[in-house]
Specification:
This protein has two domains: about 40 residues; about 210 residues, MetI-like fold, CATH 1.10.3720. It has eleven helices and no strands.
């Protein structure tokens, strides 16, 4: 146990050290003019833009978080329902999956005008756009976990008189959890990207809107500052989902 803790601390220290080295190298590159600061501001300039600008950061962060989390929840719920449906019925899978794939391969900038026309230029349309980038990995990952089970175990339970619902809760659902949480980590990053893209297309608040307006006015420092905050938010959401997954599957973590 002690060796595992030491190993984890060593891994975290190496990650932190590489990050510090990267930031220092970035600062040196800009300070010595290797890359002009109007193309790539130094880390100190980005931090200064965060604290010196008159932007209401909390309002913009909350707007983007609200859209990302709401879209993630909606996309996850829809993805779970579709995963169960396509796993339970081959006919549903043949009918539904082509439409799911078609929605996924379409660029969001192509879908956005249609959503805005149907729903309107409001938060609901942005949440729907965000959910479209979340539900696909959940559908594919969960359906894979539900279907990819030990057939012999299923036959054994059926021979003992187990119902399909019991097999689902005792075999298929636990088997799908590792696939599900991998999909959720992908989905939460997709939801963050979706929220920003939705704000690029139509919004008057949020980090995506802030980046667009800052870039339009050639405020490069503020653009990078908003991007930096967005990166931190994405990493925190990713880490939160990963932490929930580890807490939910201690048996899988020990494997």
């Amino acid at each position: 146990m002690q060796n595992k803790v030491v190993r984890n601390l060593r891994d975290q220290a190496s990650v932190l050290g590489s990050l510090v080295v990267g930031v220092v190298v970035w600062q040196v590159i800009v300070d010595y003019g290797i890359i002009p600061s109007f193309l790539l501001p130094a880390p100190t300039e980005i931090v200064a833009a965060i604290f010196s600008s008159r932007v209401n950061w909390w309002a913009n962060i909350f707007a983007t978080l609200r859209e990302a989390i709401a879209g993630f929840v909606l996309g996850t719920a829809l993805g779970l329902l579709l995963a169960v449906a396509v796993t339970a019925s081959g006919i549903v899978r043949k009918i539904v999956m082509p439409y799911i794939v078609a929605i996924q391969v379409l660029p969001m900038v192509a879908i956005a005008p249609i959503i805005y026309i149907l729903v309107g230029f409001n938060d609901l349309s942005r949440i729907i756009l965000t959910s479209l980038l979340s539900f696909f990995p959940v559908v594919v990952g969960t359906a894979t976990g539900l279907a990819d089970v030990d057939v012999n175990l299923v036959y054994l339970l059926k021979s003992l008189g187990a119902s399909e619902s019991l097999i689902f809760y005792k075999v298929r659902l636990p088997n799908s959890l590792p696939h599900l949480f991998v999909s959720l980590r992908i989905a939460i990053t997709g939801a963050t990207v979706g929220a920003i893209v939705a704000e690029f297309v139509s919004s008057n608040i949020g980090l995506g809107f802030l980046m667009t307006t800052a870039l339009t006015s050639f405020n490069i420092d503020l653009t990078y500052a908003a991007g930096f905050i967005l990166t931190v938010i994405g990493l925190l959401l990713y880490g939160l989902v990963e932490g929930v997954g580890r807490a939910s599957m201690p048996w899988f973590r020990r494997r």
